[in-house]
Amino acid sequence: IKARSLKSPCKSTCRLKCYQRFTKDQREGIFSDFWREDRDWDSKRQFVVSCISSKPVARSRKKDGSKGNRAQSNKFSFQINSCEEIVCKTFFLNTLAISEMFMRISQQKTSKTGMVE
Question: pTM for this structure?
């Protein structure tokens, strides 16, 4: 089994320009903090959930009155130098080397108080 490794940042076409705002050292710091030996899976899920803020979809363009595909929009961020930096989804997932499924399951396992169950 291959060890987890830091994946490449988002592409140069990224609207948020995440790849320019973070150094490789900062990304490696976030990655190594997330994959520390003493962190169990629940604390990893809690970290992921703490970096995501969700809100209801602002606008839906369905004309027939049926529900759209999404119920909420997600905003991803990392804390750097006590400042919250918003990043794109690709940058977020690749920096932590996690899958979209891990992110979704983490959100589903979160209670109303914001703690992972």
Answer: 0.85
